[in-house]
Automatic annotation (TrEMBL):
It comes from the Eukaryota. This is Electron transfer flavoprotein subunit beta. Gene3D superfamilies: HUPs. Its main location: mitochondrion. It comes from Hibiscus sabdariffa (roselle). CDD domains: ETF_beta. It is found in: Mitochondrion matrix. Residues 20-210 form the Electron transfer flavoprotein alpha/beta-subunit N-terminal domain.
Length: 248
């Protein structure tokens, strides 16, 4: 099972709403979160190597999450599940919903992006692993499955180098940038995806309440960067570093 989130496309210049309550998402290009594309690619590779029977893409949010799920189906997922929610969901709510879906679907592996590029939370994978009591391999840059032993070996990129973990399955894996290069959906697969099933659930059906103990106080743009200056000599540079920047 792979969790895919619909987010503002990475190439869009983000605009903050005038009332500072969040970022503008109306009339803005939305796409699958890039780390979720990597998660889906990994799941597809696992299936193609004969280590999984099917790939199920799941997404939680407003009705147009279905577009993101169709992209996932066009990349190669077999079926999809959409949990409809009109409001933005915080990671703990997403994790609780995922737990319900895991209880229904019993996947052998749950793969998520390491973070969503809209909220940059980097929490959902860790929370769902905690809720399920499953082992977690976060920031994976390599995943090797052993179906016989029912373990996953995960390389993680950490500050000092690479950490290799061995996880008993079922497990939660979150994907880092260098794990793989996600495929593009081909036109025939986009057509085929239209007839693949997307099952819908409501929050009530899954008995999960949207409750958040977080409140967004305000969202503001980063301060504008000052324009650079061209200096005429090394002496002038040293003078500025000493007397203006006070760094030497
Ligand atoms: P975050 O913890 O919000 O940075 O998100 C990390 C990962 O959790 C994402 O890359 C997705 O795999 C998953 N995720 C978060 N929110 C959603 C959502 N609304 N629907 C599906 N997956 C989600």
């Amino acid at each position: 099972m792979v969790a895919v989130k619909r987010v503002v496309d990475y190439a869009v210049k983000i605009r903050v709403k005038p009332d500072k309550s969040g970022v503008e998402t109306q009339n803005v290009k939305m796409s699958m979160n890039p780390f979720c594309e990597i998660a889906l690619e990994e799941a597809l590779k696992i299936k193609e190597s004969g280590l999984a029977k099917e790939v199920v893409a799941v997404s939680m949010g407003p009705s147009n999450c279905v577009d993101t799920l169709r992209t996932g189906l066009a990349m190669g997922a077999d079926r999809a599940i959409h949990v409809e929610a009109s409001r933005d969901l915080v990671p703990l709510t997403v994790a609780k919903l995922l737990k319900k879906l895991v209880e229904i679907e019993n996947p052998g592996l749950l793969i998520l992006g390491k973070q969503a590029i809209d909220d940059d939370c980097n929490q959902t994978g860790q929370m769902i692993a905690g809720l399920l009591g499953w082992p977690q391999g976060t920031f994976a840059s390599k995943v090797v499955l052993d179906k016989e032993k029912q373990v996953a070996t995960v390389d993680r990129e950490v500050d000092g180098g690479l950490e290799t973990l061995c996880l008993d399955l079922p497990a939660v894996i979150t994907t880092d940038l260098r794990l793989n290069q996600p495929r593009y959906a081909t036109l025939p697969n986009i057509m085929k995806a239209k007839s693949k099933p997307i099952k819908k659930f409501t929050l009530e059906e899954l008995n999960v309440e949207i409750k958040s103990d977080l409140e967004v106080v305000q969202v503001t743009e980063p301060p504008k960067r000052k324009a650079g200056v061209i200096l005429s000599s090394v002496d002038e540079l040293i003078d500025k570093l000493k007397n203006e920047a006070h760094v030497i």
